[in-house]
Amino acid sequence: MERECIEEGLPTTRPLLLDAQPTPNTIHEISNFNRAARDSSIASVLFLSTFIAVCGSFCYGCSVGYSSPAESGIMQDLGLSLAAYSVFGSILTIGGMIGAIISGKIADVVGRRRTMLLAELFCTPGCLAIAFAKDAWWLDIGRLLIGLGAGLLTYVVPVYVAEITPKNLRGRFTSAHQMLTSCGFAFSYCIGNIISWRTLALLGSIPCLLQLLGLFFIPESPRWLAKRGREKEFEASLQHLWGKNADVSVEAMDIRDIIESFQHNSEGNALDLFQRRYRYSIIVGVGLMLLQQFGGNSGVVYYSSTIFAEADFSTILGSTALAIISVCDRVYLV
């Protein structure tokens, strides 16, 4: 019949669009469009969740950089001796050590989000205790509380961000933890030169409060939910992070396989690390961490204003230079 139509000069009954075949460029454009649509749905939730998480990193950075610009003001206003202020500066490390020891267990038992919530329940009162302190005891208690919270945050924040992020974005998103820590440190160093130590402590509580409130609006880590056997919540959290229209079946299967493999291969205990075959790795790993701490980096950071003053160098200029170097270093690594 088509032949007769052609012979009579009439159009064929077959639509021309059915004969058109997609070109490679068309397929590539469609693929890019679908990927962009998917990434946009992921980005809105991921950016919010990551931002709320790294507010804790910023809080930690502020606490690390606090003692140097606040030193002269605190010693003058409260009449602290050098020894008493040294206790105030160093007690953050003691609290951080305690928090770091228990951080892994707490994060596994109560979840990543609740661990960050617990950390801010330490950090926020700690900042306020310092801001309204009347003597050295309030300063030390506040600093210790911040250390406890910081010890929890330095573990759970990068873990949470890594667990909610797709593989192709994981490296860039987890680097935000170190970046915001350096930004918090630089903030304290720069702003602390022009405001009082009480105001600086109050400003340090803002990211704590922001994370404290924001934690109620972000999902729990899907990997932790899957590890705890909460399947419905696991899929709902993953779907929320990836977008309503995204297919999360492949990612969910990968997470389940990884957790099953981990649980199958984690039947040992901490004493297994002392076996002869692990001796070299343990010595190198722990040795590098010890050398880093024995390098005196914390002492320089906590009391740099005194170091610059003793060297007859401008405290403001030196602190600002350290802040810029810290941020530039993290930007380069990212």
The N- to C-terminal Cα distance equals 67 Å
Task: Specify the CATH homologous superfamily of the largest domain.
Answer: MFS general substrate transporter like domains
- Average pLDDT level: 82
How many structural domains? 2
The proportion of residues forming helix, as a percent range, comes to over 70%
Taking pLDDT < 50 over at least 5 consecutive residues as the criterion, the unreliable ranges are: 1-41
What structural category characterises the helix and strand content?
mainly alpha
Rg calc: 27 Å
- Helices, by number, come to 15
> And the CATH topology of the largest domain?
Growth Hormone, Chain: A
> Which second-level CATH architecture of the largest domain applies?
Up-down Bundle
Query: Mind summarizing the main beta sheet?
Result: none
Shape: globular
The proportion of strand residues reads under 5%
The number of strands is: 0
Order of helices and strands: HHHHHHHHHHHHHHH
Question: What is the top-level CATH class of the largest domain?
Answer: Mainly Alpha
Question: Can you put this structure into words, describing what you see?
Answer:
The chain is an all-alpha fold. It has two domains: 55-218 and 286-334, Up-down Bundle (Growth Hormone, Chain: A); 228-263, no CATH class. It is 78% helix and 0% strand. The longest helix has 41 residues, at 24-64. The protein is globular. Residues 1-41 have low confidence and may be disordered.
